[in-house]
Amino acid sequence: MPKFLSLLFASLLSTSIATSFHGAAAADEVVCDRDTDLGHSLNLPIYCWKDSTQPMKAIILAIHGATLHAGTFDETAKHLAGEGYVVYAIDMRGFGRWRTESNSFNADSGIHYSQSKEDLLLILNQLRQDYPRTKIFPMGESVGANLAIWIASNEPKFIDGAIISSPCIKSILHKTPKTAIGIVKMFINPNKKLALKPHIQPYLSDDERVTDGYINDPNIMKDLSTVELLKSMKTNKQALAGVKDIPAQLPLLIMAGQKDEIYSSKAVPDFANSMGSLFKTVVIEPSKGHLLLETKFVEPAVLTLIDGWLAKATGISPEAVTQTSQAAPETVPAL
Fold first, then answer.
1. For position 246, which CATH number holds?
2. Per-residue pLDDT tens for 271-282?
3. Most buried among 22, 92, 187, 333, using CB within 10 Å?
4. How far is CA 324 from the centre of its chain?
């Protein structure tokens, strides 16, 4: 199968990963605010999780993957808010509330990654103005991870580090008859929506709860066209182009699942070595797939890893961010 088609179908899989966020709260006192002052001021669908009983340690801007929405970070965001971090997230254009409320934001409902990048920079700029002494960290998964890398490469002045989960580096193609048929259908009519469920269900997760959460979440996009998939591929590639320009002193936490069947975790260490940052913590989780953060079934070990890294990156912990987690099964220390 031609490499281009392989990459395109892998993009179909990677842009379809999602779960429901209608589960039990990680912290009962934390709720998701969908009607934020920041959202009103920028006229964007911005969400916020904050525990008013905790002093603010830092700000996190969560960036979801394609087909998902900001709410899929709910479990992770509630945990982080309970630890004293204020978490913001936005629905990228074409996803989440843009699908049903685009008129409220004076825009269309189409998928526009370039405008989503501009939205992210608007948010970061406003947060930097409002909280000049507070550290800010983008936290992205899948396509969102690549956009967090893009911010670190192109606009590092807005951030103090980044959390990168399951970056889209080297795609994995599952060569099956269903794959071949799907690709043919995609090119017969590139603007026609293709149902994602038959193509992602076998590879989404070994955990049936995660798969069921995806299927039953009404806010997740369940189909994409070839044109929309190509947009995702282009965005992923462009976002990784300037990784050597990431400032040497910018700390990065890079995570991936060893059982990821969408993008190869084996590509992550070499990719991390190509980044300009000298302060990198790379962790490959041995029992996890593509989704680490955008699920209500987040592993406690993953949350503990993030907590520890943030404590170091914010200066709350005296340990340097170059030290990798002792519990990490496979790590690449900072260079």
1. 3.40.50.1820
2. 999 999 999 999
3. 92
4. 21
